[in-house]
Design brief:
By secondary structure, the protein is an alpha+beta fold. The chain is 34% helix and 25% strand. The chain has three helices and three strands. Strand 1 and strand 2 form a beta hairpin. The chain is globular, with a radius of gyration of 12 Å.
Length: 79
């Protein structure tokens, strides 16, 4: 189990300008839907964007606080 604030903190450490939205998908706070908006994604493929987020959340994913993760990664212009 991990808080919305902790997820946001992990992501902002790696992507400082990120605007992060976290939704608990099951009520257990370990199956999350995360939307990240950042200009750091400009020019990056969807796979590279997801890699950045997965790297940022590596610790809570390895220790089991995050069990499942659905990602949306967008730039500020919506791409």
């Amino acid at each position: 189990m991990i808080s919305d604030e902790a997820v946001t903190t992990y992501i902002r450490r790696a992507i400082p300008d990120a605007v992060v939205s976290v939704t608990d998908r099951t009520g257990t706070m370990d199956h999350l839907s995360v939307r990240v908006v950042s200009d750091a994604f400009k020019g990056k493929t969807l796979l590279d964007r997801h890699r950045l987020i997965y790297q940022a959340l590596g610790e809570p994913m390895k220790d089991g606080r995050i069990h499942a993760l659905e990602l949306m990664a967008e730039t500020t212009d919506g791409s």
